[in-house]
Amino acid sequence: MPALSLISLLIHPSLSFDDDAELDFPEEEEVQEPILQNLSAQDPFPQKPNFYMEITMLCLICLYISNVYIGKQKNERLATGWLYLLKPLFQENFSKTGVAEKEGEGEMLKEANHVFKYYASGRYNMGYILGTLELSKRQDLFNTLIFGLFSKEQDKVSYEIPIKQENPNPIAFMLCKTNQVKNLRANHNDIKTLTRALDIGLPSGYTLLAESIEAAEFLFNGNVIRLIESLSNSIEMVYVTDQVNLIQGYPITLVSSFVYPKDGKDVDFVATQAQLVITLADLTSKLALSGKVKTAAEKERATMNKDKVKEMNQQREEERLQKKYDQKKKEEEKIQGLSKEKKRKLEEKEYKKELKKKGLKFKMVKG
Amino acid sequence: MKGDPRRPESIIPFKDCVLNSSEVPPDWFSFLSVMCAMIGFMLRIKWAAWASLLMFISGYTSSRSSTMDYSQIFTSFSMILISLVTNYSFLFRQI
């Protein structure tokens, strides 16, 4: 110990050990041992599970399902009303009404909860009349709340009639709203090419696009114009053309679209809409154009068909060239991946092929 | 019956138009419901599973009989069930 004290003196005087001196140590604090808890049985951050989101979703689903039921019932009521308004008119004009083959099996086809179809057939100049009632999707809550606010969705009814003519005559015309002329001309090539706007005393807001004034005056006589006036703004479009063929033997097609009265109110003109369409179809089937007008119309159609064929040929040629180009590119990519020897052999093969085509017989000399 | 336009011999039976698979318009609600069901299943997001159920009901109630594909409906509904069961499997464990 004295040796140690000597060494410590050499290092640092404060490190000298004095055996006799009392060493002062701080008082020991009482250290409390941690209480061990059985943590495995408990969650570190226990939370009460809540099901607010689930309850909200279930309520929303229940609300949606109840809306489906209510909306479906309303649409079916409107469709039934439409059927009862049309049935007498269809029974007067057609031999058989209803979609079912046998009587009593069902008159109307329910294609969806908002789409209904009514059909009649058996007339001397019409193949059939197919009425389609497209109502707004009242059964869909999203559609009612979201789309209903931003867009004015209306209930619509459309009719489709294939027509047979007593004397075959070229015919194409469209009755539409003046503000829709541009769009409709763009969507119908024959109306764009063959027709022009004609003034025949239609109510304001409507335009007639037809080929000749003779055809327009024959089809839109006093009776038809009275029907159009009585329908106020419910006509969207009436389109008659010989360029669309729905069934064989009926070369003319009439397609029309009307607005169905909102919520089934003021239903007086529902039958009038169908009456207008049947009247126009009757007049179209009886149309007899003079020789000059008929020849001019047929000439126009020949030019239009020529242009159509030219366009089709051009398109086919473009497709053929594109195919050839793609094939060539593929072959080039294939060749790039081959070794030199294989490339040389392929070139020899192609050279021989070309010679065979030309009909010459030459041997390729290796350099 | 000179004035009667009806002709029983000219009756054409009704044929509903059948669309090709390329002509059928896309059903966005069905597509979205399948997407939400997959998100709910893979990422364990509960509200996505519920939203997929809502969209499935919306798409189903607005679909047309001529374009309805029953196999697709069955597939969508199965996906939704799997998504819901996966998200609420903890309830079955607790029981």
From TrEMBL, chain A:
Keywords assigned: Membrane, Signal, Transmembrane, Transmembrane helix
Main location: membrane
InterPro entries: CCDC47
Compositional bias annotation for Basic and acidic residues: 308-335
GO molecular function, one term: calcium ion binding
Membrane topology: Single-pass membrane protein
Pfam families on file: CCDC47
Signal peptide coordinates: 1-16
Compartments (UniProt record): Membrane
Any single GO CC term annotated in Swiss-Prot or TrEMBL for this entry: membrane
Region (Disordered): 308-339
GO BP annotation list: endoplasmic reticulum calcium ion homeostasis
Keyword Repeat tagged: no
PANTHER family: ADIPOCYTE-SPECIFIC PROTEIN 4-RELATED, PAT COMPLEX SUBUNIT CCDC47
Name by which UniProt lists this protein: Coiled-coil domain-containing protein 47
Automatic annotation (TrEMBL), chain B:
GO cellular component term of the entry, any: endoplasmic reticulum membrane
Compartment list: Membrane
InterPro entries, A to Z: ASTER
Main location: membrane
Transmembrane feature ranges: 28-61, 73-92
A GO MF label: protein folding chaperone
GO BP, sorted A to Z: protein insertion into ER membrane
PANTHER family: CGI-140, PAT COMPLEX SUBUNIT ASTERIX
Name of the protein this chain belongs to: Protein Asterix
Source organism: Stentor coeruleus
